[in-house]
Design brief:
Blueprint lengths: L3 H8 L5 H24 L12 E7 L2 E7 L2 E5 L4 E6 L4 H9 L1 E6 L5 H8 L14 E3 L5 E3 L4 E13 L2 E13 L31
Antiparallel strand pairs: 1-2, 1-5, 3-4, 4-9, 5-8, 6-7, 8-9
């Protein structure tokens, strides 16, 4: 192995091993500070373990996608997922009319993508235009750079407060980037504005 001083000059431009070590300590300290801020005082509902997903829908040749966090497996035989969707969203009506959708699991560094597809409306623009994607075997959009995807066929719908829970059979799926870590809902902060919608007694810890 190369001496630390040689390694630092070669890769980082540091003049001494001591500067290299100080740089490493600074990075570690900054990372620890961010983790403390993230986990010290989380909103109550973010202590429920949730991933972050992009749901691709299609209707009459038109494609759209939206960000979702309320996705869970509900059955093994047959394999089924449940998805909570706001019925006011244009994507919900496409999902129901098309009868199929694809769930792309996002990677840990794709928070910006979650924000893009979660806080813009398909009524105003084609959200998939600038993104690399392909259609699943069933025809729904799948993001190329996701961690994995699931092809789903709608089998039932149930009202649930301000959302509708869509029950779907998983008809297929595969890994896209198998060695990545999935993005967690708790890592998004208040990106979706959910804090303002919950009662005060169901907010942050004290």
């Amino acid at each position: 192995l190369a001496h630390p001083t040689c390694y630092s000059k070669l890769h980082f431009g540091f003049e001494s091993a001591n500067q290299y070590v100080k740089f490493g300590v600074m990075i570690a300290t900054s990372t620890l500070a961010m983790l403390v801020l993230m986990y010290l005082n989380p909103p109550l509902f973010m202590t429920l373990t949730q991933g972050v997903y992009v749901v691709g829908v299609v209707e009459d040749g038109l494609h759209n996608a939206f960000t979702a966090s309320s996705v869970m497996q509900v059955s093994m035989q047959p394999p089924m997922l449940a998805l909570a969707v706001n019925p006011d969203n244009v994507s919900y009506h496409m999902l129901v009319a098309g009868g199929i959708f694809a769930v792309t699991v996002l990677q840990c560094d794709q928070g910006g993508l979650a924000n893009l597809l979660g806080n813009r409306s398909g009524r105003d623009e084609n959200k998939l235009r600038a993104l690399p994607w392909h259609t699943s075997p069933d025809g729904a959009p799948v993001l190329n750079e996701g961690l994995s995807y699931f092809d789903c066929r709608v089998v039932a719908k149930h009202p649930a407060g301000d959302h509708v829970v869509v029950m779907a059979e998983v008809t297929g799926g595969d890994f896209l980037q198998p060695h990545a870590r999935p993005l967690l809902y708790s890592e998004l902060g208040d990106m979706d504005g959910s804090d303002e919608l919950l009662p005060e007694h169901l907010g942050h810890s004290v």
